[in-house]
Amino acid sequence: MKESLDFIYKEQKELTKFGGIAALLGWDQMTYMPTQGAAERSDQISLISRLSHERFTSDKLWDHVRKLASPANLEKLEKKDRAVVLRLEKDIEKSRKVPSDFVEKMAKITTIAYTAWQEAREKSKFTLFALHLEKIVELEKEYCGFINLPGPEYNSLLDDYEEGMTVEKLKKEFDYIKPQLIDILEKITSSDIYNKQQNFDKKFDVEKQREICNLIIKKMNLPKEQSRLDVSTHPFTTSMGNDDVRITTNFEHENPLFSFLSTVHEGGHALYELGLPQGDFKDTVISDSPSLGLHESQSRFWENMIARNKHFWKYFYPVFEKISPEQFKDIDLDTWYRHVNQVRPSLIRVEADELTYCLHVILRFELELALIDGEIKVSELPGFWNGKMDELLGVTPKNDKEGVLQDMHWSGGSFGYFPTYAIGTIYASQMFKQLSGEKPDIIEEIEQGDFTSILAWLREHVHKYGCLMTADEIIENTCGEGLNSKVFIEYLKDKYYSLYEV
Question: Which residues pair with 162 in a beta bridge?
Fold first, then answer.
């Protein structure tokens, strides 16, 4: 058994390094790579993707894992080794269903598609991206055939990001929150306060925005020696290793809240990456998040539960005021807080207010499901997108850039990813309710700009488990129950009915 254990740990360590190399190539592509480097970069990423897949699904590794996973051997293993072996067995069994040449092909096509998406978005012309997306959708359907989980094909995509989640379970949650969100929105938009509210038109130059963004990640206790902040078209987080996590923001918007909140959001992801199990589990399948929904809960927790909280602004409003006094000379704290939490149905998901955000996610889920089921064609996406925007939010994009081309996810083949944003948002509300109950004095710490104990609580209740449990098990262990959309809706009603005096 020792030979097998030594082998599986050695392979995992080297595969972790492969993953770090691929992450570095992807990060560079989205930040500093010259645009004409896309073709060669696609070859590089597809090669390392194929090599990683072949190594992970090799007969040799599989034989060692199966030997260790046999009932006779499994019971002899130490607890930590047993956890690694069982997780490896499950992951490899699934990966072995997918041919290496398919992995290479998908990596190549999506790398090129990302550059095409960037150009299409810049020119606001969906047709420049449509052919690439058609290829990706066909590959996604092919992938579903390899995995072949019971039920709708989309289940095989969902499971990659949220293990155990199905269309049936997700529809149940969305069928509850969708009418609730629309009802709350209708009540708010009918209120006097809503009809009198004005857009915030203050503008910050890039350097002032950058100063504020660097300050917030320092306050969040994101170690400078283990992270860095850069700029990309679409903000994201990626990890090259245990001590190297990269986040990006975007300063295109002169309103400082976009870069600020996106930095907080990505900072939440980064803190989770740095808090995943090390020690015995370093460079193993356990040192990872069990789901994208749980990962997203960390970013949404910091963005919504903390950075949109009034107590947060008792500390940070004076900071904004000091950095840019001219913009705040006629604004008090209450006015600013209302602006931060202003409800206004909008076109762009990443700019959406806290109330309407999940409607943007539901829209994407419904379109993805229809694409995979063959109910709509890629060429029809802009029309269906605009129709659903009008149905759910009462706004209609004027062009493709502010509509169907706004997100990068489909260019990367990330079908099944979008629902995790809503799942994570619900999880975040459950965590904050639990944290507030356990630590009533947390409000005072937030007012002082001290987030040390909040991070310590997340480390203890979420980060340290990695893949030792499923996401729902971690939430149930922390909050006393699994995914519960009712907590999220109650949170929204308490906050926004008060803000809008509904």
Answer: 291
How far apart are the C-alpha atoms of 412 and 406, rounded to whole Å? 13
240 and 273, same domain (yes or no): yes
Residue 482 lies in a domain: yes
pLDDT at 284: 98
Q: In whole angstroms, how far apart are CA 368 and each of 116, 157, 159, 167, 427?
A: 20, 10, 14, 11, 23
Point out the catalytic residue in the list 104, 140, 266, 296: 266
- Across the beta sheet with 227-231, the strand order is 227-231, 244-249, 237-241
pLDDT tens digits, one per residue of 210-244: 999 999 999 999 999 999 999 998 899 999 999 99
Same-domain status, 111 and 195: no
Angle of helix 292-300 versus helix 419-438 axis, rounded to 10: 60
Residue 65 class from Cβ within 10 Å (0-12 exposed, 13-18 middle, 19+ buried)? Answer: buried
- Give the per-residue pLDDT at 324: 87
Measured at the CA of 196, the angle between CA 192 and CA 197, to 5 degrees, comes to 115
444 in a structural domain: yes
What local confidence, expressed as pLDDT, does residue 199 receive? 82
Residues of the chain with pLDDT under 70: none
Instruction: Note if 266 is an active site residue.
Output: yes
What is the pLDDT at residue 171? 96
Let me know whether 336 and 411 are in one domain: yes
Question: Where is the domain boundary, 148, 177, 202?
Answer: 148
Whole-structure pTM value: 0.94
At residue 342, the 3 state secondary structure works out as coil
- DSSP assignment letter at 377: -
User: What is the residue range of 106's domain?
Assistant: 2-148
